[in-house]
Structures are given as structure tokens and as C-alpha cells.
């Protein structure tokens, strides 16, 4: 193809480019009406829009010269994205599928809708202020790279960083909004999402998204399956899936755990396992146990009816035979033998992922830091980096696993420790974060912890959300001395704030950053999800979003990750028949499947595959659905960029349509459907919030009339003599 004016490519657009995929939301600059575009399976039509190759003359844009859709060339909406003005139009894959659009009429946009959309815009701005770091003030990265920086936990409960020369600590190099400001913003968020007009608008939009998905599957399901079948070289079993939410202590299956304990009792009966010199055999003998008791039923670790709505009974299931000693010996990284049994047990679990046994998968296991003592971090780093030998030699660093740290909300336990009567919450924060800051600023001082932090990708906050909490009035942490647990939002703020400062240092120094990905919305107050919406990249669970449609719509708009565990929920808080998983998935939330605690909830040695299998049967998922869920798990994960590019495609960050369908096994049709509807929701909300709703509605009505007439003409033009049928005059 020849070029225009000798220096611009032939596929160059200088006046707006091809028809917009959501053209009914926009007005052409020249005021002319643009007819709806018919589909084509040929990309060759593109050339007809621009040039007459024989003389190189540039033709007017198609939108300007089109007189009739019948004689004009057609253009499918772009498969991925349209170019910026002045940029070349890239190669476009052939993509044709059936779309359904809503043509709005009188009453579709009301004053209440405008108020709701303004609230949505404000809510999204609050998320950008905190999660997007727009409210944080970070010094020049060059300053944060200096070797003589100092830090201290300020009275606000957030780490402050200073240059060594700043003796008076007047210039904090990394600041975040304080707890008073966050409290004000959080309560403003709660107020907005509970407004009746906002709940009505969000419910309407979510219902339309559900309807759009059902229509899409009805019309395009067979085509998606055909397209998926043409993606050769991969399938569900050979496509990467990440278990984003799994607790290390619950990672082995009950079968693996029982087999492991039986093996140790046979081979290491005389191994000393406690400070008082007792051997493993003696511990079992004193408990009245022998090899005959080593059965899954006797271990009593599998969840049953007793754990439903009972978090205390659920926690007790981690102790085989209801004996705390058994948990300490086998499922702890800090004990008399240095956590060797725990390491060896997890090595068995990790080996399945490393060898792709059954299918290709990875995990993000969670280890606990309680904040009771600062030494916890150093002991954990030693455990992670020790070569454990045995059947699976090496450290606990695995190419198929990235570690996460979970911080249980156990202030009430900390406060009960001897000598802690007058202690404030600030002591717990110092125990959690001081070692991390020291290892980041002075890696030579704590080399093992500095190395371990490189393999930690996320921070979690865990505990029973339904437990009683004390209301907070923006108290500083050092003033919180009551033995009662502070509010969920208050605790999460201080975890986020200190992580935000830590990440500013780590990013400036070229180190990995640590995402905030807590448990939220499993039970308890649905407004906990307002807090995590403001602060977090993704969350574990989130099923309480079905109780709050405003937050559900916000999570959709910003594609906040949800790592849900329907089997876990089934035993603990929400029966499978009542699970909102399918509803969330159909509407387009960024949702995936995870296992939570295979030790308690799963029967097989491949719990992630079990989770997918049960979900497929329960929710009647297609293989395209399954692959979309698997792709979301990789997107939500904390694995490095090169890993994600390997399994998603090098341009995945541009959006789901740029994920390589040959790698993800998600047909481009499904990705395009999701991307178009997300774009439409953002555009529609922004226009209404800007007060342009009625004007846009009027134009939509005009466009609907044109489209209706065009469709009618196509129907009648294809008959020499139109047969009679009822209501013919209504066309």
C-alpha cells in the first residue's frame, strides 16, 4: 500500500479514524449522522476507506462520504483498541460475533441517576487517593536511595523516614493521609454507597450486565467453543492457574497430612520434638495414640457441620486429635525442630505444582506474622532460606510459589500477654514493620530477611470478621490500650499506611513492592468491603458484595480482584446453592477460584483442580468460562512481570483483549465482549455525572430511529414481494 504525502502510512487516519465501537455515545464533530456498522469477516475492506491505490489520492473518511449502508464498505469494531489520532491503524484480527445494544428511551436517565453517577465518580476518586497513592507525598526517588536514612514509628502510627542530617525530624520523606483523614473519607464512602438512589442505579446496571452476558452466551456460545477448539497447542490442563488464596498450614490435603505423619512415626519415632526431651513416639504414646489412630477420620481435620458459622471450631480443626501439641509439631515454622516437619510437608505440596502433576498451576501460600515479637520475622526468614535436604532438598523458595504474609487481627491476644497490660497498639505495629524497614534500609544488618522479602508479594489481614469490635474515633495507636479488638477499618488503615511508606522505599531502591490483599467480605459487616475498595489491589472472598450492590458495581468498574473459595464458604458461611460466584462472574467482576484450606475442605491431592471441577458442575460453567477464571487468577497474582508475560502475553497490561488467546485459551470474542461492556459502563457513568445524560439520551433516540429504519430497509429490500404477516406495519 502506498503512503500519503510520502511520509505517512496508508492506514493513517487524520480525522477521527474508523467508526467507534460505542458510537451511539458520541457525536460526530461535523454533526452528520452515522449509521450503525454491519459486520464483516474480511479485513480487506479496510483499504477501501483510505486510498485509491492507482493514483494515491486520499479519499474522505468513510463516515463523511457514506450515503447508504447498502453500498458502503463496512468495518467491524476494532478487535483490541483503536489508535490515537495521527497514529497508524494496526493489523486487526478478523473478529465477528453477535452483539446486543440497548437503545435508551424516555426516562432512561433521571436526576437520581445523575446524583448516583456523581457519587460513583467521587468513590473512584477516593480509591485513587489511597490505593492509587494520589494522596501520598513521596520524596525524590534519588533521596530515598541514600544509605544514611533513618526511620521511626511516628505518633500517628505510621513510619516516618528522614535523612540522617535531619536531626530535628522536620522533613518526613514519605507521607500518607493520616487516620483522621482516612476516617472522614471512609465514612463518606459508607454514606455514599448506602444512598438509595445510588443503590438503585447500581442495581440496574448490574442487572443489565447479567442480561448482556446471558444474551452473549446464547448467541455466541457455540462460536466461542469453536474458536476455543481452534486454539491449538493448549487446553485447560496446560494453561496456568494460580491458587491466589491458600494458607500454608492448610495447604496439604488431609490424606497427604495423615500419610506424612504415619511416615514420620515409622521412621522418626525416636526424634526429639519438644523442649522437655520427649520423642515423637512418646508424644503419641502419652496421648494414647498409635498407628491404628492414623486415619483421616481419627485426625478429625476435615470440616463438617460443626464449623458452620463457628470460627472457633474451624480454628480447632487445625489441631489433629484436638491436640495443640500436634499442630505445633507438624504445622508450625517455629518449634523445637525448627519447623522441619512443616517444611517437608509443604515441599510435598509444592512438588505437585513444580512438576505440573495433573495440570499447570502455581500457588501463593500465606505464612503468619503475629506481631507478638520482632523476632518472628528473623525466625521466619531462617526457615524460608534453610536447605532442608530430604526427598526435596533446597530452600522454601519455589518457582511455582510466591509467599504472602498474613497478619491475624489478634490484638486481644497480644494485650493478654504478661507485662502487656499498659501496652498500646503501636507496639504491635512496631513488631510487624520495624524488621521490614531495617531489612530494606540496611540489608547488610539482616541479610536473610532482606533476601526473604524479595520472595514476598503480598500482605493479608485475617481473622473472624464477625467477631465483636470496639468502635474507633481516630485514636492514635499508642492510645489504644483497651483489650478489645479495634475496628476492622482502623486496623487495615495502619497496615496499608505502613506498607505504602515501605513500598515507596523499596520501589526507589529497585526492590519488589508488596501488595495489600486482605481477607474481606467473608462474613460480618459488608462495609468492610468499602474499606478494602479504598485501600487494596484485591481481596480474598468478597462474597458479601451481594449484600451491597453499590460496592459490587464499584468493584466491577475498577476490576478489584476477588479470589473466592466456594467450597470453603459452603462449610463455613455460605452454602453452595447460595453462592454469589456465578452472579459475580456473569456480571464481569474480576473473580477467580482458590482453595483457602485444602486440609479442611478438599478430598483430593489436587485441591485447585477439585475446586474448578466442583465449580464447573455446580455453576454449569463452559470451558470458556473456566479459562477466563484461570486467566483472572494469573492477573490477580503477585508473580513477576516475566512470569505473567509468559502465560498472558507481552501486552497483557493494556487490557484483557491484549492477553494472548493462544496462551490463556480465552477466545478473543469473550475478551472483547468483556472489554466493550466495561468501556460502555465507564463512558455512560462519566457522561451522566457530567450532566450530559439527557443530551446523550436524545442523540441515542435519534440513532435508534436511524438504526431501526436501516434494519427495516434491509429486511424489505431483500424481498421482491414481502409476504404478509401479523403486525407488519410495526416494522
Automatic annotation (TrEMBL):
TM spans (from-to): none
Taxonomically, the superkingdom here is: Eukaryota
Q: Give GO BP annotations, semicolon-separated.
A: AMP metabolic process; IMP salvage
Stored Pfam families: AMP_deaminase
Entry-linked InterPro entries: AMPD
Instruction: Enumerate the residue ranges of region (Disordered).
Output: 1-92
Q: Which GO terms describe its molecular function?
A: AMP deaminase activity
Q: Where is the composition biased (Polar residues)?
A: 1-14, 31-40
A Gene Ontology CC term for this entry? cytosol
Q: Which family does it belong to?
A: Belongs to the metallo-dependent hydrolases superfamily. Adenosine and AMP deaminases family.
Protein name, entry field: Adenosine deaminase
Amino acid at each position: 500500500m502506498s503512503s500519503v504525502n510520502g511520509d505517512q502510512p496508508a492506514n493513517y487516519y487524520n480525522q477521527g479514524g474508523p467508526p467507534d465501537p460505542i458510537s451511539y455515545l458520541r457525536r460526530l464533530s461535523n454533526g452528520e449522522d452515522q449509521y450503525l456498522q454491519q459486520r464483516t469477516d474480511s479485513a480487506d475492506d479496510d483499504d477501501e476507506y483510505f486510498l485509491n491505490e492507482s493514483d494515491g489520492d486520499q479519499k474522505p473518511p468513510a463516515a463523511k462520504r457514506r450515503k447508504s449502508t447498502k453500498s458502503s464498505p463496512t468495518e467491524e469494531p476494532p478487535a483490541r483498541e483503536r489508535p490515537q489520532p495521527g497514529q497508524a491503524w494496526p493489523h486487526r484480527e478478523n473478529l465477528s460475533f453477535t452483539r446486543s445494544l440497548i437503545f435508551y428511551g424516555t426516562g432512561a436517565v433521571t436526576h437520581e441517576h445523575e446524583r448516583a453517577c456523581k457519587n460513583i465518580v467521587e468513590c473512584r476518586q477516593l480509591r485513587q487517593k489511597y490505593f492509587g497513592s494520589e494522596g501520598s507525598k513521596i520524596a525524590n526517588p534519588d533521596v530515598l536511595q541514600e544509605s544514611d536514612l533513618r526511620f521511626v514509628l511516628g505518633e500517628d502510627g505510621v513510619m516516618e523516614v528522614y535523612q540522617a542530617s535531619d536531626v530535628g525530624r522536620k522533613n518526613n520523606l514519605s507521607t500518607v493521609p493520616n487516620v483522621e483523614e482516612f476516617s472522614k473519607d471512609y465514612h463518606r464512602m459508607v454514606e455514599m454507597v448506602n444512598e438509595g438512589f445510588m443503590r438503585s442505579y447500581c442495581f440496574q446496571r448490574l442487572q443489565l450486565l447479567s442480561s448482556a452476558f446471558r444474551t452473549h452466551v446464547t448467541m455466541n456460545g457455540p462460536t466461542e467453543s469453536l474458536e476455543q477448539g481452534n486454539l491449538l497447542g493448549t487446553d485447560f490442563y496446560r494453561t496456568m492457574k494460580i491458587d491466589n488464596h491458600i494458607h500454608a498450614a492448610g495447604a496439604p490435603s488431609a490424606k497427604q497430612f495423615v500419610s506424612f505423619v504415619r511416615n514420620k512415626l515409622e521412621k522418626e519415632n525416636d526424634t526429639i520434638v519438644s523442649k522437655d526431651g520427649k520423642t515423637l513416639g512418646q508424644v503419641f504414646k502419652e496421648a494414647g495414640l498409635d498407628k491404628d489412630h492414623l486415619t483421616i477420620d481419627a485426625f478429625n481435620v476435615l470440616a463438617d457441620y460443626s464449623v458452620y458459622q463457628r470460627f472457633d471450631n474451624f480454628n480447632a480443626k487445625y489441631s489433629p486429635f484436638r491436640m495443640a501439641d500436634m499442630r505445633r509439631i507438624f504445622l508450625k515454622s517455629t518449634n523445637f525442630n525448627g519447623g522441619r516437619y512443616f517444611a517437608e510437608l509443604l515441599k510435598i505440596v509444592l512438588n505437585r505444582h513444580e512438576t505440573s502433576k495433573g495440570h499447570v498451576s502455581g500457588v501463593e501460600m500465606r505464612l503468619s506474622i503475629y506481631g507478638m515479637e520482632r523476632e518472628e520475622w528473623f525466625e521466619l526468614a531462617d526457615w524460608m532460606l534453610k536447605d532442608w535436604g530430604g526427598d526435596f532438598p533446597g530452600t522454601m523458595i519455589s518457582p511455582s510459589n510466591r509467599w504472602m504474609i498474613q497478619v491475624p487481627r489478634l490484638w486481644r491476644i497480644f494485650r493478654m500477654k504478661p507485662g502487656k497490660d499498659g501496652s498500646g497498639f503501636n507496639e504491635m505495629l512496631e513488631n510487624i514493620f520495624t524488621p521490614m524497614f531495617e531489612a530494606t534500609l540496611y540489608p547488610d544488618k539482616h541479610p536473610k530477611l532482606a533476601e526473604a522479602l524479595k520472595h514476598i508479594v503480598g500482605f493479608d489481614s485475617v481473622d473472624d470478621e464477625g467477631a465483636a469490635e470496639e468502635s474507633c474515633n481516630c485514636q492514635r495507636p499508642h492510645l489504644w490500650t483497651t483489650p478489645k479488638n479495634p475496628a476492622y477499618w482502623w486496623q487495615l488503615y495502619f497496615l496499608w499506611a505502613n506498607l505504602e511508606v515501605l513500598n515507596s522505599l523499596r520501589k526507589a531502591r529497585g526492590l519488589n513492592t508488596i501488595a495489600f490483599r486482605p481477607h474481606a467480605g467473608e462474613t460480618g459487616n459488608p462495609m468492610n468491603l468499602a474499606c478494602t475498595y479504598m485501600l487494596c489491589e484485591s481481596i480474598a472472598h468478597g462474597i458479601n458484595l451481594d449484600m451491597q450492590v453499590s460496592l459490587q458495581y464499584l468493584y466491577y468498574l475498577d476490576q478489584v480482584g476477588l479470589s473466592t473459595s466456594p467450597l470453603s464458604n459452603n462449610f463455613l458461611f455460605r452454602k453452595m446453592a447460595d453462592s454469589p460466584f456465578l452472579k459475580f462472574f456473569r456480571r464481569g467482576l474480576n473473580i477467580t477460584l482458590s482453595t483457602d484450606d485444602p486440609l479442611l475442605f478438599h478430598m483430593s491431592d489436587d485441591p485447585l483442580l477439585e475446586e474448578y471441577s466442583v465449580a464447573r458442575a455446580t455453576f454449569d460453567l463452559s470451558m470458556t468460562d473456566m479459562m477466563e477464571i484461570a486467566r483472572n487468577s494469573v492477573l490477580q497474582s503477585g508473580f513477576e512481570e516475566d512470569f505473567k508475560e509468559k502465560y498472558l502475553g507481552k501486552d497483557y497490561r493494556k487490557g484483557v483483549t491484549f492477553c494472548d488467546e493462544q496462551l490463556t485459551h480465552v477466545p478473543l470474542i469473550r475478551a472483547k465482549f468483556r472489554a466493550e461492556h466495561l468501556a460502555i459502563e465507564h463512558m455512560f457513568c462519566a457522561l451522566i455525572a457530567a450532566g450530559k445524560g439527557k443530551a446523550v439520551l436524545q442523540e441515542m433516540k435519534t440513532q435508534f430511529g436511524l438504526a431501526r429504519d436501516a434494519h427495516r430497509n434491509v429486511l424489505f429490500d431483500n424481498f421482491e414481494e414481502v409476504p404478509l404477516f401479523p403486525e407488519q406495519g410495526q416494522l
